[in-house]
Design brief:
Layout: E1 5-9, E2 12-18, E3 32-36, E4 58-65, E5 68-70, E6 75-77, E7 81-83, E8 90-100, E9 103-112, E10 115-130, E11 133-143, E12 150-153, E13 167-171, E14 180-183, H1 189-192, E15 199-204, E16 207-213, H2 216-219, E17 223-226, E18 232-235, E19 243-245, E20 250-261, H3 266-277
Antiparallel strand pairs: 1-2, 2-3, 4-5, 4-12, 4-13, 6-7, 8-9, 9-10, 10-11, 11-20, 12-19, 13-18, 14-15, 15-16, 16-20, 17-18
Length: 278
């Protein structure tokens, strides 16, 4: 029997990692974090909401790995639009390399039809920043174990403009009003979606999330942002061009997220990001 891993910060539970969830195949089963909370106990993730049943808290989800869907739900098909296909993959927990209350290192395989298309080393750590803020440090290293080149795509690379999602993705809870979103120099979904920024903040009722790319490669990825339709932020691996992965090749991305109680302003958000990355 396996149990979820509860992550703790400053003696408080702040996240539950579900490494072997029982999910329907069309959800592209995968390990994920939910619930994630502020230090004050406010939930900042959503799991299987009615608007998108395949949104699973904090996860790594990719709509197109060599034509296989590791995001869940429908696949965007050029000339047909979103189509429900029998092409869903599964991320399978293989082994803990480290498992502690303040983080873990995990090996996973991204499987389809019994074949591992990708292998992943996932490293997650929790750090206290202030009495009202903590940081989630999330690194994903994806390796192609096969003899042929693979490529990672998105609905945008398959013909749907602006839908370049796929990679680290955080589904936040939907409130009575859309959350605010801003970067160091821009405000609003239209101004930040599909653009790069050192950090990006999403602020809902009683909470703020500040996402930061922690490596040069991660900072080159545009942000995928939704606030009006639903609250979600992702770091896009294949915004408008497919990402090739040669045999034995590895792609590494690292996102550090500040999880704070209350509504942060730009100077506070920037200061907490600097502290989280130091």
């Amino acid at each position: 029997m396996t149990t979820d891993l509860v992550l703790r910060c400053a003696g408080r539970p702040v996240g539950r990692y579900r490494h072997r969830p029982a999910l329907a195949p069309e959800l592209s089963p995968r390990p994920y974090l939910h619930p994630v909370t502020t230090l004050g106990g406010t939930p900042v993730t959503e799991e299987r909401p009615e608007d998108h049943r395949h949104h699973l808290g904090v996860s790594v989800a990719v709509p197109d790995v060599a034509g296989r869907n590791f995001w869940g739900g429908r696949t965007f098909v050029r000339g047909r639009g979103p189509t429900l296909l029998d092409n869903h993959g599964e991320q399978r927990h293989d082994e803990w390399k480290l498992r502690d209350p303040d983080g873990f290192v995990e090996d996973l395989s991204w499987r389809t039809g019994g074949t591992a298309l990708l292998r992943e080393r996932r490293t997650v750590a929790v750090t206290a920043l202030t009495p009202t803020a903590w940081a989630l440090d999330f690194t994903s290293a994806l390796t192609n174990p096969g003899p042929e080149e693979l490529s990672i795509g998105s609905p945008a690379t398959n013909g749907r403009p602006g839908a370049g999602y796929g990679g680290f993705f955080w589904r936040a809870p939907k409130g009575p009003a859309a959350p605010d979103v801003f970067t160091a120099g821009a405000d609003g979904e239209g101004a930040v979606h599909g653009r790069t920024a050192g950090w990006l903040a999403l602020a809902g009722p009683g909470w703020t999330l500040v996402f930061a790319g922690a490596t040069e490669a991660t900072r080159r990825d545009p942000w995928f942002v939704r606030t009006a339709e639903y609250p979600g932020v992702g770091s896009a691996l294949a915004w408008d061009t497919r990402l090739p992965l040669p045999p034995g090749g590895t792609v590494v991305r690292r996102v550090v997220t500040v999880v704070a109680d209350g509504a942060l302003q730009r100077p506070e958000a920037a200061a907490l990001v600097r502290k989280a990355l130091s």
